[in-house]
Amino acid sequence: MKFSPILAAIAVCSSLIYSTVAQADAPMSAAQKSQIETIVHDYLMSNPEVIVQAVQTLQQKQVDSMRSKSEAAALKNIAVLNPSATTTSDPVAGNKKGKVTVVEMFDYQCPHCVEMGPTFSDLIKSNPDVRVIYKDFPIRGAVSVYAAKGAIAADKQGKYMEFHDAVMKAADGLTNAKVDGIAKSLGLDMTKWTTDRDSDATDKQIKATYKLATDLGVMGTPAIFIFKTTNPTMVDFIPGQVDLKYLQTSVSKVSS
Fold this sequence. Notes:
alpha+beta, 11% strand
């Protein structure tokens, strides 16, 4: 059985009091423990904001710990995360030789990823020295996998961004048929698109992203990594949706 954040916060408060008393006096009796539990209960009931603050602090510590571990792992896997413009098989937008690289792992059915689509477009427009590498990371079922494979196949015909943007706009109630319709509407060679979509190479590319995500400790989407393209010494990991200002701050931080 797992404790909720609130129960965890209460447990921490109680354990701190027990620890303090135990250090100062002899072992507590059952009556003393009961008295302390009553004091803690009454205090928290009278000051519920303390629980909220404790939960927020606990959650922030967990996020910070996760980010630190993922950033360290990213540096160890930087050759995979940061391929050269001539060797990457992942779609690249913006300046392919940009001084700052932004990697996004995303799922076409992730609402936060969908909402961040225009944010990345704005980031590219306002930062001519940034390249964005898109890593299709379908974790929301078979339709997500189908759409990701379709996007990679569209990239082989030079129409990744058009396909990407169209699928993002159609993400609500996405189906295989909708994905097929988008491919047709873009004027893709459907025979080649279908072959590339279902190829072993496309399957391996997605599986490579799954492995990389595991190595980096990524557990959801969007997952964003930002670093200098050449000789990166730090990686800023953003686990979740953020606005343009947050992305811009991160870009400025790693490039300084």
